[in-house]
From TrEMBL:
Stated name of the protein: VOC family protein
Pfam families the UniProt entry points to: Glyoxalase
Record domain VOC: where: 10-154
Record organism: Rhodococcus tibetensis
CDD domains registered for this protein in UniProt: VOC
UniProt-listed PROSITE patterns: VOC
Superkingdom of source: Bacteria
C-alpha cells in the first residue's frame, strides 16, 4: 500500500481523436446532455505538417471534462476491421482485449442510470449491455467513434476491508508478473503468503487503534 500523499483533485479531461465531429456532438450533447464548455480553434499550431484542428470539451460533471480533437483534412488510418478511431485491430485480436480500454462515468442512482438507458435506447447508439458486477451496475454502448462508453452506479459503498484486499491483490500481482509463468493460481498463492506475513502487524495496528479509542 502506497503511503505517498498527492494533491491531485481528479480528472481535468480525457481526450480522444474523432473523424466525425458532427456525430460526436450529437451523441454527447444532444443524446446524453453533456454541454459543450470549451473549444480551441488551433490554426498554424505545432510543427510543420501539423494540420489545423479543433479541440472541444464536454462537461461530464464534477468539473471533469471529456474532450475531442478534430483535424481538418485528416483521413482515417488503415488498419484491421476492429477497434475505434484511434486504434484499428486485426480480426484475431480478442474483443475482450479491445473493450478493456473504455471510459466509465458514474451517476448517483438507479433512476439516473435508467434515464441514460432510455436516452441511448431512443438514439442511434442503443445500450449493448447492462451488467451488475461486484459493487456496481453498468450500461455500455459505443459512441460514433467506436469508443466504448460505460455509465455506472454504485450498488453499495466499497468497504475499508475491500480497499485492503485490493492492495494485497495488487502487491501479489506485481510479485507474480515479475516472475516466470504468471497465473491466477500463482497470484492467489502469493496473496495468501502476504496475508500471513502481514497478519501480526495488522493485529498490532488494530489493537493500538482500539486502545486509543478507550
Amino acid at each position: 500500500m502506497s503511503e505517498l500523499q498527492h494533491s491531485v483533485k481528479g480528472v481535468d479531461h480525457v481526450a480522444y481523436p474523432t473523424f466525425d465531429p458532427a456525430a460526436t456532438v450529437k451523441f454527447y450533447r444532444d443524446v446524453l446532455g453533456f454541454p459543450v464548455v470549451h473549444s480551441i480553434c488551433a490554426a498554424g499550431w505545432g510543427p510543420e505538417k501539423h494540420p489545423d484542428f479543433i479541440h472541444f470539451f464536454f462537461d461530464i460533471g464534477n468539473n471533469d471534462r471529456l474532450a475531442f480533437f478534430y483535424y481538418f483534412g485528416l483521413e482515417p488510418f488503415e488498419g484491421g476491421p476492429q477497434g475505434d478511431s484511434y486504434s484499428r485491430f486485426a480480426e484475431d485480436v480478442p474483443i475482450f482485449f479491445i473493450r478493456s480500454r473504455h471510459l466509465a462515468i458514474h451517476v448517483d442512482s438507479d433512476d439516473d442510470l435508467m434515464e441514460y438507458r432510455r436516452r441511448l435506447d431512443h438514439s442511434a447508439w442503443p445500450v449493448e449491455m447492462q451488467i451488475q458486477h461486484e459493487t456496481i451496475e453498468s450500461i455500455y454502448t459505443h459512441d460514433p467513434n467506436g469508443y466504448m462508453i460505460e455509465i455506472t452506479r454504485a450498488l453499495r459503498p466499497v468497504t475499508p476491508q475491500e480497499d485492503l484486499d485490493a492492495n494485497l491483490t495488487i502487491d501479489a500481482l506485481v510479485d507474480v508478473v515479475s516472475g516466470p509463468e504468471p497465473s491466477m493460481a500463482a497470484l492467489l498463492t502469493r496473496k495468501a503468503e502476504l496475508i500471513t506475513e502481514r497478519a501480526a502487524a495488522w493485529q498490532q495496528q488494530q489493537e493500538s487503534k482500539e486502545m486509543a479509542t478507550r
